[in-house]
Amino acid sequence: MAFSAAFSLSCTPQSRMLSIQKSQPLAPTTSFVSTQVRQKFLCSPLRHEGFSPIGKNPKRFAGQVKASMDNKNVEVLSKEHLAVSLAKYVADRSNKITKEKGSFTVVLSGGSLIKYLRKLVEPPYVGSIEWSKWHVFWVDERVVPKDHLDSNYKLAHDGFLSKVPIPRGNIYTIDDALPAEGAADVYETALRRLVKSNVITLSSASGFPKFDLTLLGMGPDGHVASLFPGHPLLKENQKWVTFIKDSPKPPPQRITFTLPVINSTRNVAIVVTGAGKADAVYTALEEDERYDKLPIQLVSPEGELKWFLDKGAASKLYKQ
Ligand SMILES: O=C(O)[C@H](O)[C@@H](O)[C@H](O)[C@H](O)COP(=O)(O)O
Fold this sequence. Notes:
By secondary structure, this protein is of the alpha/beta class. It contains nine helices and twelve strands. It has helices at 35-42, 45-48, 58-62, 79-101, 125-128, 152-159, 180-196, 259-263, 278-286, and strands at residues 65-69, 72-77, 104-108, 134-138, 140-142, 201-202, 209-210, 213-216, 241-244, 254-257, 267-272, 304-310. It has a seven-stranded mixed β-sheet. Helix 9 links the parallel strand 11 (267-272) and strand 12 (304-310). Bound molecules: 6-phosphogluconic acid.
């Protein structure tokens, strides 16, 4: 079956550092931003808050700090506050959209994102959400059995889905009995059926499925979903779901939503933590044209794009 309901287990996602730029990597000592970026930040509250990854006055950095960069919506938070802010954000969207259309379609990633959803399963958020209206999908999935330590489904189940009353039939997992190509085809076919049954709507602008909320992580190399820097899949503009057999991040076989699907989403939130991702965050927010665009830079949804960063991930954006 293409879509089966959810059950068991706990995952240890693996990652490895990859070079983020084709040429001219940022000097390791880079601790300041270009004039262009500095100007953007000079107009933002974030800069006025005197954000520092180290901070002389820890109390000052314990709370929420916000910044606006052109059309980007960036929050830099402590890890704890990030989880709270993310819970509030997801609950707000769930409540608003459920009221509007009677359902809420959510797309999850693997990786550390799931642990940042931990506040969503606690009061006051857990009780404020109509979980029966949720429909859950994956922006990418590793082609492994659902009880495998590498399964994104297992990660989400153990850390999130097992703690909230989403109907099992509303949790759309891959057919793990199929090879990558077949699993991608079957997932796409199932999405098309859900369009017919009005669970998923189509974007009138792109014709691709328009999910209500996509929650993305980002790798140190700037990848999102299973769309990696320089990979031909970045150019896919017909399929909704495709597959990769040579993923640079193990395991090698995965299925993934394509960029047009990600970009048709109503709300995209990107959750990035850790200093190991500071270069990719810097490159993405600076929009430096000297380099080939990273996958994260190709994320440009029809709706809102929101960044949740911790101080490590934001550490190359600011100068004391
Ligand atoms: O299946 C995957 O590998 C993920 O969906 C992947 O796209 C992930 O979101 C990023 O690699 C960030 O992962 P971390 O937050 O764990 O670094």
